[in-house]
Amino acid sequence: MGEANLIEAVHTLRSYNLALTGMAHDPQSVSSWITRYAENEGKAKNFCQDAAIGLLCHLNNPIYAFNSLTNNQQLWSGIFGSAEQALVEEQNWQSTQVSQHTLTSFARMFSTDIQWIQQYAQSLQYPMDIPFEFFVNKVIDDLRTCQGSSGAGGIPHSPQTLSPS
């Protein structure tokens, strides 16, 4: 029996949510989850049987009513509101990570690469008030058509790489 804790509760909730998702293909997936994790001790790697029983109580399963649980199972039942909130916060965090990655990927280009692209744009005599993204696309397009030593190939360039620390 594990002591009620948020991380194990989140693991339990994720596992149960996967079973719910699986019901579209297997109507017995939640019943199987209950049998596997709430009725049989030691079947889950990431959470204990009491956590599974506590979650079922939290979800108002009539078989696992609060008054019929052990003290430890009741403690587990009480932590699942926080686990649900943690999953919502994690989803928000993941969305922020994706947005931040998308918004900052351009800024993460190496300064020498930016200078090289600007030099290439100047060699093509493009006005410099054109958005930089256009120049990046032009370089990619020109390199795809492989202009050899003219055009994009005529400007010396060593791509920047991250050196191992």
Description:
59% of the residues lie in helices and 0% in strands. With 165 residues, it is mainly α. Helix 3 (49-58) packs across helix 4 and helix 5 packs across helix 6. The model has no long low-confidence stretch (mean pLDDT 83).
Mean pLDDT: 83
Overall body shape = rod-shaped
Number of helices: 6
- Radius of gyration equals 28 Å
Largest sheet: none
Could you spell the SSE succession in H and E letters?
A: HHHHHH
Helices and strands in order:
Elements: H1 6-22, H2 29-38, H3 49-58, H4 71-104, H5 111-123, H6 132-144
Helix pairs in contact: 1-2, 1-4, 3-4, 5-6
For this entry, give a set of tags.
165 residues; mainly alpha; single chain; 0% strand
What's the short story on this structure?
This protein has 165 residues and is mostly helical. Helices cover 59% and strands 0% of the residues.
